[in-house]
Design a protein that fits this description.
This protein has 952 residues and is mainly β. It contains nine helices and 43 strands. It has a 22-stranded antiparallel β-barrel. The chain is globular and about 90 Å long.
Length: 952
């Protein structure tokens, strides 16, 4: 599998998949036509009561048909019937939606092959926060068992909350009075993870339990709904990764016993040969526990026909703890010889020398979400409806990490000279053409599993980061029913205040050099006698490193530092902190129409939304002092004297929109839409802080290196990305189970993103130095994207029993874009003084999250008590930016996943349920800073769930 060419082989397979998709649609269309025999009236069809997957697909088809905008949906009339283990996995079954997977689960959502940056996500119609620093919703927070409808608006209308160039994802929970019946439901699932079974001392077993209750009281004027879930699972991972900073090394200058010569920007354009290397290579084994508690609640009060009051609250508290064991080749730019590279600078093989480190860390993350809102709907007359809504959403994520490093030395811990008589060990790097798995081979004379060889330069760090994201919002909407061409007039205003604050502080670096006798005592005391995992990276063809000497982190901290946890710094101030406030005021007016155009009924809406955004970003500035580490290197630390720098930005955008639906035949709709849309930068990308980075975990040896590593951690003056959009869709609904649709869309972007360098002054050890600081600006570039979206779904009811329980759905999206994102170090760069652009040496990426091909296929079978469903998802390669921006380019390779779900009704109200995720252990492969240059391969295995659900 890993020897395939990631660029060409995957592309050929994509073409084959697209062809298969077209063939399936051609096959399904006649089947649809056969399912509606002449004389079959609606009464006959309505007499059939359907449940399960078929009911969900029917509801989704009906939602799409009835909505005014172009919408795809996944909905169920009952709580807990969304067929997925998480909301993210449920969304990826919707036409045009795909996901980015982390820890084996669906996380960020891309619509029509466009990343989460271009999408907007709301919960019960309100913006939701997250702990990632961007505007995407962490769908893992929301159990699918407590959600009963998901809508994706592909086109905009004036009444929707602004923010979705690609679309808007709306997650909804039920309203208890609208549900209309009492329901008590309990479900318990056991999880088995084969990778977890390979962790020493773990069986790979976890569980999740869900309990929900819905009821109505006081003559159906008061309704309540409450759901709780406990999730206690494990998500072990194994990975190889290069660092996130890559350098172009001059191939015409060979340097030994030092770092390669960097291809400086002043020399760009001179045609020097170069190759691309990272600062470090790391093999990482992760053992993890993951716990989450979630509570959803809603109260609905309808005291009369004129009032409808809804209060809903969501709470999620998730904690996971990771034990990481790293083998780190920390000097990947040093003493490079025999370098073989291609015309793009991608290294195929090289030899190098580096200190080798056995690093260990204990990381814990706690993420708490609290959200909800109060909505009051009043109908003072049959024609007028007034709605006032207030909402609150807050996410707090806190990470604590304790890290320890032990390095190689010319001697072992017993003082015996090694065969190399050098702290740096020879190694080779090789990668076969087309593979994403490099083979790194350490000189065989060095025993990676010998604890005696890892003891020198003991370094201890205690990091804590905290992200606080809060949104307070209110809106007022009014709707008036009318007679004539316009059937309804709507207007409203919305105000919101979003705050994002974070810090990342370090209690360290503690570089300790006790007498070697003390090192020897601690080394022997704190050894892990066995590697924490069996068969490490055995699925990665070509991997040559399967284990290394590891140590107990708690023991090392206790013996070297006197405490297992020195605690976080009390003073959390840092120049890298972010403090962003964004205030939004928006208003809209929209008119719905429903008329006949000749013999064709036509309905739709036309409107305009005006959005005013004010951003205030505060950053701290301080002098820096040099602190000697005692090993010939130094680090930079801030003084206690800080001053605040405030940067403000403002923008006003006008967003017109029009949607029209033509009923060209009783079961055929033609939709057209035109609109202007906007997507705001991530909150973390608006920071005004500055960071001095040490990507390889080393320390500075001179002040010039320190200056070269200063960067902005945001660009407060970034404006929203704007686009003009046009969509046209044809939809055929032959019966309740079937749909055949095709949508063409076009987006014209006004502006892009481009690195820009500003000179800033810093005081370092009493000296004022001028430092070029790279940020991101809105470029004047124009770009576009066009695409085609296809959907086909049907149940094969024309087949003889029992095959008439078969059904299928397939969706495919093709997109083509010429948008450009430049690499912040090696790409084109704008000079604000000369107002010129200096060309880079590597090509740009496209939109973040943009995939040219997205395919989702489902096959299901339901008959009697049995329900089976298989789901296949494919996504072609895409660029994924790092949260916060101002980072180098990162690409994610094509991904394919196959999931399976099954249920068996044991008796009335009781069912046995089974689910398998990522059955074929598809890894995640990433590349930097150009596609094809391997940066990481990441395996997390399959997951299996089996459980029982009971309803009363």
């Amino acid at each position: 599998m890993n020897s395939r060419n990631p660029i060409h082989a995957r592309t050929r397979r994509t073409v084959l998949l697209a062809s298969a998709c077209s063939a399936l649609i051609a096959t399904v269309a006649p089947a649809m036509a056969q399912e509606a025999p002449a004389g079959a009236g609606p009464e006959e069809d309505d007499a059939i009561i359907v449940t399960g997957i078929r009911e969900t697909i029917q509801n989704s088809i009906n939602t799409k048909r009835e909505e005014t905008a172009i919408v795809d949906a996944l909905s169920s009339d009952d709580i807990g019937d969304i067929p997925a283990i998480s909301v993210g996995q449920a969304i990826q079954t919707i036409t045009g939606a795909t996901t980015h997977r982390e820890k084996g689960d669906a996380s960020e959502i891309a619509l029509r092959g466009l990343g989460p940056f271009l999408s907007n996500s709301t919960f019960n119609g309100r913006d939701a926060t997250n702990g990632s620093g961007d505007r995407s919703v962490n769908f893992n927070q929301f159990p699918s068992e407590l959600v009963n409808n998901i809508k994706i608006y592909k086109t905009q209308q004036a009444s929707l909350v602004e923010g979705g160039v690609a679309g808007t994802i709306e997650i909804g929970t039920l309203r208890p009075l609208d549900f209309g019946k009492r329901r008590i439901q309990a479900e318990v699932k056991a999880q088995y993870n084969p990778y977890g079974d390979r962790i020493v001392g773990s069986g790979g077993i976890g569980w999740r339990g869900t309990l929900s209750y819905v009821d109505q009281f006081a003559n159906d004027t008061i309704g309540i709904a409450i759901g709780v879930q406990r999730n206690d699972t494990n998500n072990p991972e194994e990975t190889y990764a290069a660092s996130t900073t890559w350098t172009a090394c001059r191939a015409d200058i060979v340097v030994t016993n030092n770092n390669c010569t960097e291809y400086g920007r002043d020399d760009y354009g001179e045609g020097h040969p170069f190759y691309l290397v990272p600062n470090a290579y790391t093999f990482r084994q992760i053992s993890e526990t993951d716990k989450r508690d979630a509570i959803f609640g809603a109260i609905q009060w309808r005291p009369s026909d004129q009032f409808n009051i809804n209060l809903d609250v969501q709470y999620s508290d998730r904690t996971f703890v990771e034990s990481r064991r790293d083998l780190n080749i920390s000097e990947a730019r040093r003493s490079l010889t025999n370098v073989v590279y291609d015309e793009n600078g991608i290294v195929q093989s090289l030899s190098g020398q580096s200190a080798i480190e056995s690093n260990g860390s204990e990381l814990s993350r706690a993420e708490e979400y609290l959200g909800g809102g109060l909505s009051i709907e009043w109908q003072p007359s049959d024609r007028l409806t007034l709605i006032i809504d207030g909402s609150y959403s807050r996410t707090i994520r806190v990470e604590d990490e304790r890290n320890v490093r032990l390095r190689t030395d010319p001697t072992d811990v017993n003082g015996v000279r090694t065969v190399f008589n050098n702290m740096r060990i020879p190694y080779t790097y090789e990668i076969a053409p087309g593979s994403f798995v490099p083979t790194i081979t350490i000189d065989p004379r060095f025993d990676l599993n010998n604890h005696d060889l890892f003891w020198d330069d003991a370094r201890f760090r205690r990091d804590q980061s905290r992200r606080h994201n809060k949104i307070i919002a209110g809106r007022f909407d009014a709707g008036y029913e009318m007679d004539g061409f316009f059937s309804k007039l709507s207007a409203g205003v919305r105000w919101s205040e979003m705050t994002f604050r974070d810090y990342d502080v370090r209690n360290g670096d503690f570089n300790l050099n006790p007498p070697i006798a003390e090192d020897r005592r601690i080394n022997n005391l704190c050894r892990n006698r066995a590697f924490p995992q069996t068969d490490f990276l055995s699925a990665a063809d070509g991997n040559a490193i399967t284990s290394w000497a590891t140590f107990d982190v708690d023991c090392l901290f206790r013996e070297y530092m006197g405490s297992e946890d020195p605690g976080a710094l009390e003073d959390k101030r840092s120049p890298a902190n972010r403090d962003v406030t964004e205030r939004t005021l928006a208003g809209y007016i929209m008119a719905d129409y429903d008329v006949d155009l000749g013999s064709f009924p036509v309905r739709g809406n036309i409107g305009v939304r005006v959005v005013k955004t004010d951003v205030t970003s505060n950053g701290l500035r301080s002098e820096f002092v040099l602190v000697d580490n005692g090993d010939g290197t130094f680090r930079l630390e801030t003084t206690d004297d800080f001053e605040t720098v405030t940067i403000k930005s403002r923008s006003t955008r006008i967003l017109p929109s029009v949607n029209a639906i033509f009923e060209v035949a009783p079961n055929t709709l033609l939709r057209v839409a035109g609109y202007r849309a906007m997507s705001r930068p991530a909150p973390s990308a608006l920071g005004a802080g500055r960071t001095f980075t040490l990507d390889d975990g080393g320390s500075f040896t001179n002040i010039e290196d320190a200056i070269d590593n200063v960067r902005a951690n945001g660009s407060p003056r970034l404006k929203p990305l704007m686009s003009w959009n046009a969509d046209a869709a044809i939809e055929w609904y032959p019966n309740k189970d079937s749909i055949l649709s095709a949508t063409l869309y076009y987006k014209q972007f006004n502006g892009g993103f481009q690195p820009v360098v500003f000179d800033e002054q810093f005081v370092i050890d009493g000296q004022t130095v001028t430092v070029p600081v790279t940020q991101t600006r809105n470029s004047p570039d124009k770009s576009r994207i066009y695409g085609l979206e296809l959907t086909a779904a049907t149940r094969f009811s024309f087949l003889p029993k029992p095959l008439d329980g078969l059904g299928a759905k397939v969706s495919y999206n093709y997109a083509d874009s010429n948008f450009e994102n430049e690499d912040v170090r090696l790409g084109d760069q704008f000079d604000p003084v000369t107002e010129t652009v200096s060309e880079g040496i590597i090509p740009p990426a496209s939109l973040s999250g943009y995939s040219k091909h997205v395919l989702s296929a489902q096959a299901y079978y339901e008959i009697g008590p049995v329900s089976l469903q298989a789901i296949y998802n494919y996504r072609s390669k895409y660029y994924q930016d790092f949260v916060g921006g101002n980072s180098q380019l990162r690409f994610v390779g094509p991904s394919e996943t196959v999931d399976f779900r099954a249920s068996l009704d044991l008796m009335k109200g009781v069912s046995l349920r089974f689910e398998a995720l990522n059955i074929f252990n598809e890894p995640k492969a990433t590349y930097m800073p150009i596609y094809g240059s391997s940066r990481q391969y990441h395996y997390y295995g399959s997951k299996y769930f089996i459980g029982i659900r009971a309803r009363i």
